[in-house]
Amino acid sequence: MFPLLRAARQIPGSEAPEAATVPVWFMRQAGRSLPEYREVRGEGTILHVIADTDRATEITLQPVRRYGVDAAILYSDIVTPVWAVGFGIDIVPGVGPMCEHPFESAADLERLRPLEPDIDLPYQAETIKNVVTDGGVPLIGFAGGPFTLASYLVEGRPSRTYTKVKALMFGQPDLWHQLCERISDIAIATLRAQVAAGASMVQLFDSWAGALRPEHYTEFVLPHATRILHEVADLGVPRTHFGINTGELLPLMADAGADVIGVDWRTPLSVARQRTGGRVALQGNLDPALTTGTWDVMQREVRRVLADNGGNPGHIFNLGHGVMPESDPGLLKQVVELVHEEGTC
Amino acid sequence: MFPLLRAARQIPGSEAPEAATVPVWFMRQAGRSLPEYREVRGEGTILHVIADTDRATEITLQPVRRYGVDAAILYSDIVTPVWAVGFGIDIVPGVGPMCEHPFESAADLERLRPLEPDIDLPYQAETIKNVVTDGGVPLIGFAGGPFTLASYLVEGRPSRTYTKVKALMFGQPDLWHQLCERISDIAIATLRAQVAAGASMVQLFDSWAGALRPEHYTEFVLPHATRILHEVADLGVPRTHFGINTGELLPLMADAGADVIGVDWRTPLSVARQRTGGRVALQGNLDPALTTGTWDVMQREVRRVLADNGGNPGHIFNLGHGVMPESDPGLLKQVVELVHEEGTC
């Protein structure tokens, strides 16, 4: 058994001695923070790099080699599947996902036809197979959660206030739910294909769902998140559910059917565990800003997170959000070593 | 007694029948959402409008007239005092506060000399006096909280990740605390001058403090917020402490010495009340995104917030964050009427 899967299942180290370390990986561990990434990245949209299996395989493996992390995560993006079905979306360097024609009305549902993974994104399965063969660590697949993906489609670009997507959600709830059904169908197809190709775990990134209060999350998002997670339950791989600013949503996100909840750095793991009643494992939750600092401070903060977890076997060490372009890869490597040395499970 | 001050003191309506309505005002109620504001606003930086007492008085009063809110809030900005002492900061339309030379080292402390309100911002007292004379409602003064103001000074512009300000905070804690002391001195001088001029209540806007986990907030910000709030305690006006994404910080923000805690829309008031043990009044917390929508939805959501408060006398109705440029003034007026009609205290 791998430490990642042991922790995801909340199995104490004593019951799986071969996997008795605290697993650690980093959201966005592949990418701009790594010089070796910038070397193979090239110009233009990353969607073309994602669709190039040789480069995508190499990029997926780079952080595994450099850091000794306990998981690879597929080099892709949450908008890849909607790009692949031809919604009309691009990832603009320095900005993020942008749509020339954002989602506005029922007619736009047609631009979200069902995903046929073998035809629409054959490169995904190929990259996963390459990584699983070469990597020696479990691979995490992922998809975008309903609110987050809808926010890009409706806003047409990254937003701070989510005004347009919330206007659709509150103002046209039927259309909202239809949109989420399409997004969910695509997410389910994506995740199932990833697991079929060899992913050992999946993560639903509803990164921006924390923009909603619990009652709105319950009404507008939870049913869809629940369907996605339940429709991959039979695959037998652990499912992580992640968002930032989700302190108040953690019990709901667990209820959706997750095995692991991603916790941002704002909520101590001990608080998150209390709120979720111990029924899920936790992933997190170092403040990503620390990755641009010094080892002295980092050391203290890694130990703070480990102490806050208190040796609970259900802990996957990670940042509370993604690695940043300015993050220091040297520090991240030291984090992995320290967690492996001092973490208890 | 005014309803605002009754609620801030958690006095039941039955004990102050003349003030037995739920008070309501809106953060950023004066500003871009109002056509009458755009008429008097003119071009260039708003700092010059703030320093023009005629226009600042008019703008402060516009929402009072239009909405019938229970408070005026001084038309100003949290960076006005540091601009006034010559730090070198501007508010760029469409962007926000920007510094050509951000705060970098101990030498920059000199750019934050003590504020002499009578000399540095005489227009502030004059505007307040005008409003208090003309307005018929209590006026709220305010200052920027330590983390939020430091973030503008150190980042040099609005940030999503607060990487630079956190790097300073974690990496140079002595310099961080010196910076916060300067900021706090300026905040204290600002607030004292506002109350001397006639403000009936003050609010400390540490809007971005929720970017910190509780342990970091406790170590790096709480001592300064506490000093600010305590050094205005003798003035006898209620003190509100506000930030977004502060679900985990609410008890600490109350401990700092606040009478009222501003709660963003993510945390239900009932949860916030539980976390703060009922020792403070609460301000909030409608999702600002609703202000661009329909009255049908708004009505339901206003009632949801009122129901969530459950008739507790310590409730000042507000949005969970500021009015947006796209907000519909007609809707906001209806919110005020509904809260006044149906709110119980």
Give the oligomeric state. homodimer
In CATH terms, what is the architecture of chain A?
Answer: Alpha-Beta Barrel
Fold-level CATH name of chain A = TIM Barrel
> What is the radius of gyration of chain A?
19 Å
Distance between the termini of chain A: 14 Å
What string, H for helix and E for strand, traces the elements of chain A in order? HHHHEHEEHHEHHHEHHEHEHEHEH
What's the β-strand tally of chain A? 9
How would you state the average pLDDT of chain A, rounded? 97
Low-confidence regions of chain A: none
- Placed side by side, the strands forming the largest sheet of chain A appear as 1-4-5-6-7-8-9
Q: Determine the number of helices of chain A (DSSP H or I, runs of at least 4 residues).
A: 16
Given the C-alpha coordinates, what overall shape of chain A results? Answer: globular
Question: How many separate domains of chain A?
Answer: 1
Describe the structure.
Two copies of one chain form a homodimer. The first copy, chain A, has 345 residues and is an alpha/beta fold. Chain A has a single domain (3-342), classed as TIM Barrel, CATH 3.20.20. Chain A contains 16 helices and nine strands. In chain A, β8, α15 and β9 form a beta-alpha-beta unit. The mean pLDDT of chain A is 97.
